[in-house]
């Protein structure tokens, strides 16, 4: 299994690209989030033709802004006879996310189901959803995701304001496998929709944590959370 980032920035950190990850698991390639900057990066990295599934955390533009274009690429430049496949958690909130994705796509793809096949997450081994509804923005459906193989677990928070959710999830696994947590964070203490870096620092003695969704140039001097953007092994080369 491998998890590498295509972009590590937030909505406004265009130099670092919208946060998005490329997961290789059991021979499959999963694109996790597809924000405004992602399609261009997929083309530059020569990944657009390798996507097996797309997985979305929530419906903000920096996570879905180039989803329609990526789907149109699949239809017109890759495989006209095969639909793009979007995974969704088969729960009440997961089906709500699926319906919101379909509605969003309908603005540019009037008949989304002619372009997209929605696939329950349970059909792909090793991927689990972590329901974070209301924990990023009140009223918003959102998810984090966990990826697991024989030896490793990699947890991706998605955008999240609750400082404990991902760590409680990992504790509940009661696993002896190596666990890495990729957690969004903010350097602003008053940003309730993201987790403050000092709250992540509190977990560093117990968990292997890496921060993303930030501009590393704004890192305070006392920040000890390793940032994904500074870890070459977690970045897609190119």
Describe this structure in words.
The protein is α/β, with parallel strands linked by helices. The protein has one domain (2-234): Ribonuclease Z/Hydroxyacylglutathione hydrolase-like (Metallo-beta-lactamase, Chain A, 4-Layer Sandwich), CATH 3.60.15.10. 21% of the residues lie in helices and 24% in strands. It has helices at residues 38-44, 61-64, 67-78, 92-105, 165-173, 197-201, and strands at 2-7, 20-25, 28-32, 53-55, 84-88, 116-120, 127-131, 143-148, 152-156, 178-184, 208-212. The strands form two sheets. The protein has a six-stranded mixed sheet with strand order 1-2-3-4-5-6. It has a five-stranded mixed sheet with strand order 7-8-9-10-11, with helices on one face. The radius of gyration is 17 Å and the shape is globular. The model has no long low-confidence stretch (mean pLDDT 97).
